[in-house]
UniProtKB/TrEMBL annotation:
Family matches, as InterPro entries: DNA_methylase_N6_adenine_CS (IPR002052), Efm5/EEF1AKMT1 (IPR019369), Mlase_EEF1AKMT1/ZCCHC4 (IPR041370), SAM-dependent_MTases_sf (IPR029063)
Name the record gives this protein: EFMT1 methyltransferase
GO molecular-function term, one example from the UniProt record: nucleic acid binding
Keyword set, alphabetical order: Cytoplasm, Methyltransferase, Transferase
Annotated catalysed reactions: L-lysyl-[protein] + 3 S-adenosyl-L-methionine = N(6),N(6),N(6)-trimethyl-L-lysyl-[protein] + 3 S-adenosyl-L-homocysteine + 3 H(+)
Organism: Balaeniceps rex (Shoebill)
UniProt record, GO biological process: methylation
Pfam name, any one: N6-adenineMlase
Compartments where located: Cytoplasm
C-alpha cells in the first residue's frame, strides 16, 4: 500500500496541534469580542523587524499623564512612533484633549482618522491637514538609535510642535538630542514590557513632571 510511505502524525502530536489551533482561535475570538480593548498595550503585538518595543503599562501611563498636563485643556497631542503612549491616552476617553498617532506600521490604521502613515526617512511627507506648529506637545520615540534617525525625526517634531517636546530614546543619544532638539534628560527612567539591552531615557525642553 503506497499510503504506508506517508509519514503519520502521532495521536499525541495531533492532539497538541489541535489544542494550539483552538487556543489561537480563542485568542482571536477574545480580540474581536466586545470585551476586548483595542487600545490596550499589546493589542497589536511588537514587530521586532520594525524595531518595535512597547513600554510597560506604568511607563505608558506616566508619559500619557505628562502629555495631558503639558498639552493643557483642549490641547492637541502627537505621538510620533510612540504607539504605547497613544494607546494609553485613548484610555482617557472623554478627557479634554485630542491625539493622533504617526506610525510606519500600517496595522495601526485600525485607529481610523487618528492614524497618519509616517516614514522618518521622509520627515515632512505629511498630510496637508497636518498644519505646522499645531500640536501643544509632541511625544516621539525614534525607532533606531542613530543620529540620522534622530535628526530626521527631529525635523518632523519641530514641524508639528508649538514648542513642547517629550523625547524617549537611548541614554547614548543625549548629546545628539540636545543638538537637534534642545532637550535635556529627565530623572524619570522609562521601562519596556521586555527588557532592552540599551538604557533608555526621557528628554524634555520644558518644566515637566518627569523630574
Amino acid at each position: 500500500d503506497d499510503d504506508d510511505d506517508i509519514p503519520q502524525l502521532s495521536s499525541h502530536t495531533l492532539a497538541a496541534l489541535q489544542e494550539f489551533y483552538l487556543e489561537q482561535q480563542q485568542r482571536e475570538g477574545t480580540k474581536t469580542s466586545q470585551g476586548f480593548n483595542q487600545y490596550s498595550i499589546g493589542s497589536i503585538e511588537e514587530d521586532w523587524q520594525l524595531s518595535q518595543f512597547w513600554y510597560s503599562d506604568e511607563t505608558a501611563s506616566c508619559l500619557a499623564n505628562e502629555a495631558v498636563v503639558a498639552a493643557g485643556k483642549g490641547g492637541r497631542i502627537a505621538c510620533v512612533s510612540a504607539p504605547s503612549v497613544y494607546q494609553k491616552l485613548k484610555e482617557h476617553d472623554g478627557k479634554d484633549f485630542s491625539v493622533c498617532i504617526l506610525e510606519y506600521d500600517r496595522r495601526f490604521s485600525v485607529y481610523g482618522e487618528e492614524f497618519i502613515f509616517y516614514d522618518y526617512n521622509h520627515p515632512l511627507n505629511l498630510p496637508e491637514n497636518l498644519l505646522p506648529h499645531s500640536f501643544d506637545i509632541v511625544i516621539a520615540d525614534p525607532p533606531y538609535l542613530s543620529e540620522e534617525c534622530l535628526q530626521k525625526t527631529a525635523e518632523t517634531i519641530k514641524y508639528l510642535t508649538k514648542g513642547k517636546i517629550l523625547l524617549c530614546t537611548g541614554a547614548i543619544m543625549e548629546e545628539q538630542a540636545a543638538k537637534h532638539l534642545g532637550v535635556k534628560i529627565c530623572k524619570f527612567i522609562p521601562k519596556h514590557s521586555r527588557n532592552l539591552a540599551n538604557e533608555f531615557r526621557c528628554y524634555v525642553n520644558y518644566a515637566s513632571g518627569l523630574d
